[in-house]
């Protein structure tokens, strides 16, 4: 899945087949150039606001299900961010990837319920908030001509 702006900047990319970096860059560049050059009536991609969502499908895959997957992902982003925009993806790209990973597994929809996906994301958010980050403080510093040794300890 590729998300890119009208200016051709990749905002999110998720690959489900093993490709080299060189191949990925070439495919991404070719797709972006092709899609941005198309006229509005020539649609085989989805555009939401200023972002284009693009998925590759295999011969045996159902294109309508792929369109539904893209739409469901946009709905999930919209619910999570509250009217998602390109800046949400830019500044919270790790959340955008996390939502995609909760929704898709190996390129296939693993959870179709928006409520269940959002619940899992909320639980992960709570874990990040509740989990205290230990602070390290230097207890003793011994300086000798050849080296410096520090003994860290954790304050609760």
Automatic annotation (TrEMBL):
Protein family membership: Belongs to the adaptor complexes small subunit family.
Keyword Transport annotated: yes
GO CC terms in record: AP-1 adaptor complex; clathrin-coated pit
Protein's recorded name: AP complex subunit sigma
Complex and partners: Adaptor protein complex 1 (AP-1) is a heterotetramer composed of two large adaptins (gamma-type subunit AP1G1 and beta-type subunit AP1B1), a medium adaptin (mu-type subunit AP1M1 or AP1M2) and a small adaptin (sigma-type subunit AP1S1 or AP1S2 or AP1S3).
Topological type in the membrane: Peripheral membrane protein
Single Gene Ontology MF annotation: clathrin adaptor activity
UniProt-listed SUPFAM superfamilies: SNARE-like
Keyword field: Coated pit, Cytoplasmic vesicle, Golgi apparatus, Membrane, Protein transport, Transport
Domain AP complex mu/sigma subunit: 1-127
